[in-house]
Specification:
eight-stranded parallel beta sheet, binds NADP nicotinamide-adenine-dinucleotide phosphate, SDR_fam, Sepiapterin reductase, single chain, 44% helix, sepiapterin reductase (NADP+) activity, alpha/beta, 269 residues
Length: 269
């Protein structure tokens, strides 16, 4: 069913979609752009910590896409309890979903970490472990547990998306945790692609987005040059609207021609 050249699908079929970090920013925009591409009977499970953000998204989705089943899960993915909460909800909500054509897991939730510090300041293993528990471990364990819980059937297309960053490839001063986390995730998902050729895996770098994370980046970065560069980007209108970047990801998923495991950047396509 994979589209080639210009002949891409208009729909992702009857799908179960788990999307982390859906309460705001890129994840929220992505949820709203994915919804019209999911056929009747599809289930969307948005995950985040903030009840308010999730409730608002859920209300908007229910109003615009009444045939979509939306079950948001309020969970903190930096804790094991939070992870278990999501896994239980996924089992619960998907056990009754028949004839699914696609399982779509989108690892979007993330944090930038303490970017005021230089490499030499990271002497506390607890601080470092806590960053990686959320940004690396939870994405690995959530994805593996979901794939394991749905061994699948012929005709079920499994797609895993890792929301990556230029920082997976290029170092930035004072962004030790963020760059390392994003590089680890890219590699982790390349191994998934290699081991499981039947799973379609994509690391998508969404470009510089006008979100809360970007605001933190331009105000809290310890390196003045990084701060100034990000401030210039904001002031000169170079930050991307989340919807513009999310639409590109949706198109990549509909086309479904990417090499599994690839890192694809917004500006490449
Ligand atoms: N912004 C950029 O310029 C940029 C550039 C490249 C890549 N990215 C990547 O794009 C993705 C989205 O970024 P964004 O800019 O939209 O970030 P954002 O505005 O900070 O949103 C982050 C999302 O993750 C959720 N989240 C944070 N901590 C969580 C936790 N412990 N458990 C569960 N959910 C949690 C947040 O919801 P709650 O607070 O409600 O939990 C929110 O929905 C991230 O992976 C980021 O690294 C961003």
């Amino acid at each position: 069913k994979r589209g080639g050249g210009d002949s891409w699908q208009l729909s992702l079929g009857k799908a179960a979609c788990i999307l982390t970090g859906a309460s705001r920013g890129f994840g929220r925009s992505l949820a709203l752009l994915l919804a019209p591409r999911l056929e009747t009977g599809s289930v969307l499970i948005p995950v985040a910590r903030s009840q308010g953000g999730l409730a608002e998204l859920e209300a908007e989705l229910r109003c615009s896409f009444p045939s979509l089943k939306v079950h948001s899960v309020q969970a903190d993915l930096s804790t094991e309890d939070g992870l278990q909460l999501v896994l239980r909800a996924v089992q619960d909500k998907l056990s009754g979903a028949a004839d699914l054509e696609r399982l779509l897991v989108i690892n979007n939730a993330g944090s930038i970490g303490d970017i005021s510090k230089s490499f030499l300041d990271f002497t506390s293993p607890a601080e470092v472990n806590s960053y990686f528990a959320f940004n690396v471990t939870s994405a690995l364990c959530l994805t593996s547990s979901i794939l394991k819980a749905f061994p699948g059937h012929p005709g079920l297309c499994k797609t895993v998306v890792n929301i990556s960053s230029l920082c997976a490839l290029k170092p930035f001063k004072t962004w030790t945790l963020y760059c390392t986390g994003k590089a680890s995730r890219d590699m982790m998902f390349q191994v998934l692609a290699l081991e499981n050729p039947e799973v379609r895996v994509l690391s998508y770098a969404p470009g510089p987005l006008d979100t809360e994370m970007q605001q933190l980046a331009r105000t809290k970065s310890g390196d003045p040059e990084v701060r100034e560069q990000l401030l210039r980007m904001k002031q000169s209108g170079q930050l991307l609207d989340c919807s513009v970047s999310a639409q590109k990801l949706v198109t990549l998923l509909l086309q479904d021609t990417f090499a599994s495991g690839a890192h694809i950047d917004f500006y490449e396509i």
